[in-house]
Every structure is written in structure tokens, then in C-alpha cells.
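Same chain as my last thread, 394 residues:
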Amino acid sequence: MKHMRSAFFVLAGTAVIGLLGACEAPLGEGERAAWSGAAATQAPAGSGSTVEPGSTASAVATQAPAGSGGTASAAVTQAPAGSGGMAEQGGTASAAVTQAPAGSGGTAEQGVTASAEVTQAPAGSGGTAEQGGTASAAATPAPAGSGGTAEQGGTASPPPVRTASAAPAAAPAKEQTVSLPVLNYHSIGHEPGNTLVLPPEKLERQMKYLADNGYTPLTLEEFLLILERRMPAPPKPILLTFDDGYADNHEHAMPILKRYGFPAVLFLSPGSVEEAGYLDWEQAKEMQEAGWDIQPHGMTHPHLPRLPAERQREEIAEAARLIQENLGTESVVFCYPYGEYNRDTLKILKEEGFRYAFTIAQGRTTSAQPPLQLKRIYVNGSHSVETWSRSFAP
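reply #2:
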């Protein structure tokens, strides 16, 4: 099944490479469709890409110039983040969103289909946080009163008693935007040419880097409290997320993170549980006990915008139900399969009680982003530790 999905994406990837030569399609159910030579075209981190509903893009993502508030036509599918042509769970990117560049203040409008793996944030960009400015209100001084004047022919009358009018209070400063790096991993193993598969020894070096350089990996609860300004951030906070529920996450990633005492988040598609190459429920429980938060990634990892609203609801609600039933975990954060969603998806997530959702749009997560359209930073398995570390450096 995994290889059929991979083959589906190889065809789509070849077309995209011919057009742009550097864009990557998302990984599908296997999230392992190998493209050997595709270089990751990276969308600037921290971009506030705006997508407007209504139109479709026919080719790969074109970056808006730096600092522009450029918008991309919507019902669009974003090109994958530096995946080297790997497609999430076997789908093809139907189009690629034109992303606004780093520092752009645009926000994605609801109803847009953001597609398969997004273009990666450029090495070393680290996405800048959008800062909330401070508003200062100048106090208007009370008009100066005149002193008492002497009456003609008489004694000088005392100056009238004056009450100083209070200057209006300055407007409170706007709260500064919270900015947090969220790393997006997939499979941990060896598959040369597939940049969505990170070798275990490289993951070990990455976790050592985080420990040696004072980073604090967060639990999902801590991440949400910090994002909502209900908890102060520790030194260098970071969230580690793994998509799809590969069995190699249990075999390789869990022991490595456990050695460093690092928590992580796993986005699981329950329909893949116990399929070849994927976790079973017992392994998922062991990961949960080791400090992994497990949240839904769709029931069968579908292209949600291609489904009618009721089918979308089934995919979202059933995935949450099975995670609750097997792991006792309430689902409050969703991760879009292929990064795709539309107005129906957003509406259903709200109605089903989800507070946040992650896309594959590239950049740091910030409190200024719509809660159901949070960004992440794709981890490219071919990158050196130095290049990887620059992608989320403060």
C-alpha cells in the first residue's frame, strides 16, 4: 500500500520538477515516496502567507517578494516543504500556493485548500516573529490657567483655585506576539534519496544539539499555555512533532528522545494502525507513557477538501474517537493530512471542539496566526545538523 502511494507521487513530482526544478510534493500514507534528486525549494520561514479563496493554482509555488503582503490564489494546494519530492501518504499536490515571504504580515483566509507538503523554510531563516507594536498615547496637558489678576482700584484678589485636569492615560501597549519553533518530522530510518526519512544517527545528533544548546522541548500542553500567554516560556522553547504514526518512530525516535528526557507530539491516523510499517495500539501506548502526546491526523489520511462535508466530519470525529477509546486522550489539536483543508474543514474542526490545527505552511508558529492554521518547520532528512539548526534559530 505504501509503495503504491509512493508511486502515485513520483509521477506528480516529475511534473513539478520539470516546471520549477526545486519544489517538493508531500508524502502520503507512506510519506515515503522517494524522489532522488529534487532540491527543496524553501518558502521563507515566518511568512504570513495569505491565501484568498476562489481560484486554483496550476503549477508550483511562486514566492512573493520579501516584505510584500503578497497573496496567493486559493483553493490552492501548497507545495511540500523540502521533502525532496516526498508526498504525504501517497497524494499529489494539485497545485502550489504562492507563499508570502518572511516577515509578511498576511494571514490565511478561511476556506482555502492548503495542499501537500509545503515549500521549506530556507536554511537559516528561522522565520521572524511578527512583533506586536506598542501603542503610546500622548497625554494632553490640561490647559494652563491664568493667575489671578488685580481688580482695578482695589486690592489684588487671590488667584482662583485651579484643579489640574488629569492627563488621559496612555493606551496599553499591544501584547508582543509569541513565536515558537515547531519541528515537523516524519519517518526515522534509512531510505537514501528520500528526504522525509531521517537517519536515526542524525536524529541523535539533532537531539544532542538541542540539549547542548539549552533548548527546552515542550509537551503539547506547555506549548498551548505559552502560545496563549498563560505560562512563561522556558529558555529556548521548541515543540517536536512527528506525522503519520510510522512504526520506526517507536523503534528509533522514542528511545533517542527518552535518553534526553524530551517529550514530543505524534499525529496519528488510526486507520493505518497495525498496517505494515505503522504503529499498533500497544506501541502507541508505550510512546504515550514515554511522554508523547498523541493527536489525530485524519482517520485514513485523506485529501479532506476532496470529500463532502459529512465525510470530512467522519474522518475527523472518528479519528478523535478511536484515540480517546484506545489511549484515553482528548483530541484538541488536529494536523491536516497533506496540509489540505477548506472552509468545511475549518467549520467542522470548530464544531468538534478542536482548538488548534497544524498545517505544513513553513515558518515558526506565532500567536498572531489563525488557531486552525498554525505553521511548522519541515525537517529535511538530507540536511546537516548545522543547516537544520539554522532553520529555527532565534
